[in-house]
């Protein structure tokens, strides 16, 4: 919601900002790729989003997908966390401004303040975006916001 241009697309010489935020999630299943869409993602809880995604995946497994579940994405998250890829560059979908790449989590060694070596889990997020109306500065700001939110969630999980 804060970064409206990442929920927009170019239509000729106009930039159209979409009202609803519908997040497409790339899933690999049975050797093919599908993109189920979490509708109005900004207005539901993460738990509800996960339940919806699982329902859509089950429909795919049963070979009875609802076509409405696979349309109207305004932004896509392409996850390769099930692979060994540490970085990849996804292609921006038509009528979208960007796609977030989520590769596999990596283990990294680093020296802590206690002068001891600690293993840390890291992920190298990437962002492909339409350069005709977005620039590196906006992309950087957007990725930093995602990192801040991820850290906030991670810290909350550690507390629980």
Give structural notes.
- The chain has two helices and ten strands, in the order βββββαβββββα.
- The chain has 160 residues and is an alpha+beta fold.
- The strands form three sheets. Strands 3, 4, 5, 6, 7 and 10 form a six-stranded mixed β-sheet that branches.
- A hairpin with a 2-residue loop joins strand 3 (23-29) and strand 4 (32-34).
- The chain is globular.
- The model has no long low-confidence stretch (mean pLDDT 89).
Q: How is the topology of this model organized?
A:
Layout: E1 8-11, E2 14-17, E3 23-29, E4 32-34, E5 37-38, H1 46-61, E6 75-79, E7 98-102, E8 106-111, E9 117-122, E10 126-129, H2 136-159
Parallel strand pairs: 3-6, 6-7
Antiparallel strand pairs: 1-2, 3-4, 3-5, 7-10, 8-9
Features:
160 residues; alpha+beta; six-stranded mixed sheet; two-stranded antiparallel ribbon; 2 helices; 10 strands; 29% strand
Tally of strands: 10
Strand content: 25-35%
Outline, from the CA principal axes?
globular
Straight-line N-to-C gap:
28 Å
Low-pLDDT stretches: none
For the largest beta-sheet, the strand count, sense and barrel status come to: 6 strands, mixed
Q: Secondary-structure element order, as H and E?
A: EEEEEHEEEEEH
Question: What's the mean pLDDT score?
Answer: 89
Helix count, DSSP H or I runs of 4 or more residues: 2
Percent helix range: 25-40%
Task: Please give the radius of gyration in angstroms.
Answer: 17 Å
Could you say which structural class the secondary elements and strand pairing correspond to? Answer: alpha+beta
């Amino acid at each position: 919601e804060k970064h409206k241009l990442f929920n927009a697309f170019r239509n000729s010489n106009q930039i159209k900002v979409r009202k609803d935020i519908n997040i497409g999630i790339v899933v690999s299943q049975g050797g093919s790729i599908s993109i189920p869409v979490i509708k109005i993602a900004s207005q539901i809880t993460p738990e509800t989003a996960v339940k919806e995604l699982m329902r859509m995946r089950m429909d795919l497994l049963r070979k009875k997908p609802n076509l409405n579940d696979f349309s109207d994405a305004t932004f896509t998250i392409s996850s390769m966390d099930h692979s060994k890829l540490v970085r990849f560059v996804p292609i921006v979908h038509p009528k979208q401004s960007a796609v977030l790449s989520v590769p596999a989590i990596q283990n990294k060694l680093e020296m802590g303040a206690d002068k001891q070596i600690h293993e840390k889990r890291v992920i190298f997020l990437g962002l492909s975006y339409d350069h005709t109306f977005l620039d590196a500065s906006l992309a950087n700001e957007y990725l930093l916001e995602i990192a801040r939110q991820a850290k906030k969630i991670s810290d909350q999980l550690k507390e629980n």
